Amino acid sequence: MKILTPLTFLATTVFAKNILMSNDDGWASTNIRAFYYKLKEAGHNVYITSPVSQRSGYGGKFDIPESNVLEIDGEFSYPPAGSPAWGHEEFDDHIWYFNGTPASCIAFAFDYLLPKYFDNVTIDLVVAGINEANNYGSYFTLSGTMGATYNAVYRGYPAISFSASNWNNSFYKDNLDLNDPLLESTIVATKAVELVNQVFESQGENPRALGLGVGLNVNFPAVGYDDETCMDPKWTFTRITGEAAAGADLQYDEKTNTFGWGDDQTWAPLTACYNGDCTLPSETYIIKYGKCQATISTFSIDFDANAALTSQVKDILNPLF
Ligand SMILES: *[C@@H]1O[C@H](CO)[C@@H](O)[C@H](O)[C@H]1NC(C)=O
Ligand SMILES: *[C@@H]1O[C@H](CO)[C@@H](O)[C@H](O)[C@H]1NC(C)=O
């Protein structure tokens, strides 16, 4: 029975990886902190570089601080105006904020923080989130969580974006409770670690955890206090567009002569399938109509249309050449 000791030791060391984490809800949000601690609990070495304030909907926007001092309070006044424009938790020098966007937070990590303070440690995987609210379908381009993810993929890192269903903007000092089994942040962080560990386990001796230019988009359904029948969502393979995939729209109000958000619209191009596995259900459909299912979609940053579509366009433009 003594043999169990070295085996357990081996299992924990094999999967001790270096992970960079960002989000768009800000470094002080409950979900990112829960994810951080759950990955550390699993033995990983984790670094957070996240915006100092809520940067949801910033997509891939690449803001850089205009000064080295914060002019306005960070989210939840944490930290307050007048603090440095980047810095870390006093109690943990792996948890950093940066007065930028999710996309520039990834660059901040690779171009400044890791080389300057962490011996240019090799990052095995970049994760973003866990976002407050789902990011599916056309939100690929709108979401700051996705912005961080595809910026990491551009730079050659495997990256995974995670989004939960509850959009409450929550401060970790009010809400983090890693021992509450019904808390959404705790449940989704635990599930996210399960996926991350599977990616590393399958990686084995391969130098990369996912193919070059490939990333994943993961969404969780309502869980725990929001749906007590769903404590352990079932993984489901999906595609990003397809049935029910929708995009943001606006609504004009005659009376007030103002615009507001309209309902998301399912436009035909969002349901067409040109790339990927067309037999898979869309992540939007599964999150909206599925039963306690978590979705995993694969994307690549090869933005080109496929060969058949490219050839159609070549025919259209042929006289120009
Ligand atoms: C850090 O490591 C990366 C990847 O090995 C390399 O491309 C980069 O030049 C290094 N940066 C510094 C400042 O050493
Ligand atoms: C939402 O977040 C606020 C601020 O952190 C917190 O006080 C509140 O309890 C949260 N509500 C839920 C339903 O999680």
From TrEMBL:
Any matching Pfam family: SurE
Secretion signal, residue range per the UniProt entry: 1-16
InterPro entries named among the record's database cross-references: SurE, SurE-like_Pase/nucleotidase, SurE-like_sf
Entries under Gene3D superfamilies matching the protein: Survival protein SurE-like phosphatase/nucleotidase (3.40.1210.10)
GO molecular function: metal ion binding; nucleotidase activity
Swiss-Prot/TrEMBL keywords: Hydrolase, Metal-binding, Signal
Domain spans labelled Survival protein SurE-like phosphatase/nucleotidase: 19-227
Keyword field contains Signal: yes
Keyword Transferase: no
Family: Belongs to the SurE nucleotidase family.
The protein, known as: Survival protein SurE-like phosphatase/nucleotidase domain-containing protein
